[in-house]
Specification:
Blueprint lengths: L5 H14 L4 H18 L9 E6 L3 H15 L3 E6 L8 H12 L4 E3 L5 H8 L3 E5 L14 H11 L3 E5 L21 E5 L9 H6 L2 E5 L5 H5 L5 E4 L1 H6 L15 E5 L7 H12 L4 E7 L3 H7 L4 E5 L1 E2 L3 E2 L4 H8 L4 E4 L7 H13 L4 E3 L2 H4 L5 H5 L6 E3 L3 H5 L8 H12 L2 E4 L5 E3 L5 E4 L11 H14 L4 H27 L2 H6 L1 H9 L2
Parallel strand pairs: 1-2, 1-4, 2-3, 4-5, 5-6, 6-7, 8-19, 9-10, 9-14, 10-11, 14-15, 15-16, 16-17
Antiparallel strand pairs: 12-13, 17-18, 18-19
Helix pairs in contact: 2-3, 3-4, 10-18, 18-19, 19-21
Length: about 525
């Protein structure tokens, strides 16, 4: 699904009004109707038994709220409407909505943070409408302003909160909070979802997001090119290469996993298990000889083999010839799970990256080895390299900003790689700079070993023939969906990385039905 930026939405509105001659008040009335309907759905009882509070700014977003207040009043709700800002700055359409509201006997009240009556009404309301700011907000809300007071009052109320277009205080293009922000139960956004509703804190503050048609022609919306989109179920389904009925082990890809060290035997095992469970034909697991016996006992389907280790049970340069020899017969290298932070191990990683032409999925210790040596990644620009760092790992090789989507896009473009920055709403971008925001997953994935599962899954899909971006972003979606199923069965508290792998069959079955 497309995710639009604020400038794109302004241009859509302009074209609809100026080129297609759609009256702007018509767009506002349809927006108001959608907001009012959402508010009605959240009422705990009959409208006549409930009351609502609508907080409006002076812009067109405020006009949406004023129009919604009129419709709520006509539906029987007892409602008060508070203007946060100056009456003189109301836009022409907002003034028209105010006139129509007044004709119904409801007046727009100047908001006063010190007014006990207004505070009591808001705190006792069953539903509150946030129409303070639209998608154009670009600077922090001053902490001592009436707007900050209104945001605080909305958030203190126990009533359900509906945001018009975007939760006020959330930056539309990044999801970051501009000083303070409304915490919405539901956001009714117009024409297209916004980037800030899918990433960053905005994804947490937006609640349930519904996209409503307000009359902008579909042909205009189709013309909007959005470099940032969400990865949905159909995208993940496309990442599953078809299974050839007459295929054999070699048909379905060969993955070599290199990882592990003394004290870190679980990571490479989980990576191998995920690769096997997700359909890879042959999975080899190269580990230090110091832990080979432990891996051999654990693995029944993957094939572990020992690599010469240095003192302390970690891999060093002496392991390189054996790795390269095995890699000659494989399709994909998964490099990093459980690797030691020793410098000699890091040097081995860098040399492998330089010497192999094979696609590489780089995680954990493999990513850390690039700290101070990002040129090694640059040298692989025309080869497939997929990185799957969490924030801490990424901070060692790049600059993490509050705008996560742009951070990922910029890094992938500059270094010619595919980057999947893990976290709430993992973002994946390719060398061309397009980004995909994941929509699955839960806090149960925030456990050691979950990332190792993802590495094995991505490597498996890649080895089976999925395109690199499909393997990465589709793998992230499948991983998150499996996590959701595990949480449903076991709760986010009790699920383990092994439970994620155990849920793969159900996810794959769901995707095959599409």
């Amino acid at each position: 699904m497309k995710l639009a930026a604020a400038a794109q939405m302004r241009e859509l509105d302009r074209r609809a009004i100026q080129e297609r001659k759609i009256p702007s008040i018509d767009l506002m009335n349809r927006a108001a109707e959608a907001v009012a309907l959402a508010a009605m759905e959240l009422l705990p009882g009959k409208p006549s038994k409930c009351r609502g509070a609508v907080f409006c700014g002076a812009g067109n977003n405020g006009g949406d709220g004023i129009g919604a207040a009129r419709l709520l009043f006509l539906a029987g709700l007892r409602v008060r409407v508070f203007l946060v800002g100056q009456y003189e700055k109301l836009t022409p359409d907002a003034l028209e909505e105010t006139r129509q509201l007044s004709e119904c006997g409801v007046e727009l009240e100047p908001f006063d943070p010190g007014d006990a009556s207004q505070t009591a009404w808001a705190l006792g309301s069953h539903v509150l409408v946030d129409a303070l700011f639209g998608v154009g907000l670009s600077r922090d809300i001053a902490p001592d302003s009436p707007f900050a007071a209104a945001v605080g009052l909305i958030n203190r109320s126990k009533g359900a909160v509906v945001a018009a277009d975007i939760a006020s205080g959330v930056e539309a293009d990044s999801g970051r909070v501009l000083g303070c922000a409304v915490r919405a139960d539901r956001t009714v956004t117009f024409s297209l979802p916004k980037i800030g509703q899918a990433v960053g804190e905005g994804a947490l503050l937006s609640g349930q997001v519904s996209v409503q048609d307000i009359g902008i022609p579909a042909s205009l919306i189709r013309e909007v090119i959005c470099p940032i989109q969400t990865a949905e179920r159909d995208f993940a389904a496309a990442a599953l290469p078809p299974r050839k009925p007459g295929g054999h082990k070699g048909t379905f890809g060969k993955v070599l996993i290199v990882g592990g060290s003394t004290g870190y035997t679980g990571a490479p095992y989980l990576t191998a298990s995920a690769a096997v469970r997700s359909g890879c034909g042959l999975v080899y697991l190269g580990v230090p000889d110091s832990i080979w016996e432990a891996e051999a006992v654990k693995c029944s389907s993957a094939m572990p083999f020992p690599l010469e280790s240095r003192w302390g049970g970690s891999l060093g340069r002496k392991a390189l010839p054996a790795i390269l020899e095995k890699l000659e017969t494989c399709d994909v290298l998964a490099l990093g799970p459980g690797l030691s932070p020793q410098e000699e191990t890091a040097a081995l990683v860098r040399q492998l990256l330089q010497e192999t032409e094979k696609p590489v999925v780089l995680d954990a210790g493999g990513i850390n080895a690039l700290e101070g040596h990002i040129n090694v990644l640059d040298q692989r620009r025309n080869r497939v390299t997929i990185l799957t760092p969490h924030d801490g790992e990424f901070a060692r090789i790049g600059t993490l900003t509050e705008n996560r989507a742009e951070t990922v896009r910029t890094f992938a473009r500059e270094h010619g790689c595919i980057l999947a920055l893990k976290g709430h709403r993992t973002i994946t971008a390719g060398p061309e700079g397009n980004a995909l925001v994941n929509t699955t997953g839960n806090s149960g994935l925030a456990k050691g070993g979950s990332g190792d599962v993802l590495t094995g899954l991505i490597a498996s899909l890649l080895a089976q023939g999925a395109s690199p971006v499909l393997a990465a972003a589709g793998g992230v979606w499948i991983h998150g969906r499996a996590g959701d199923l595990a949480a449903e069965a076991l709760t986010a508290y009790c699920m383990t990385p092994e439970d994620i792998i155990a849920a793969f069959p159900r996810v794959f079955s769901e995707l095959q039905e599409i």
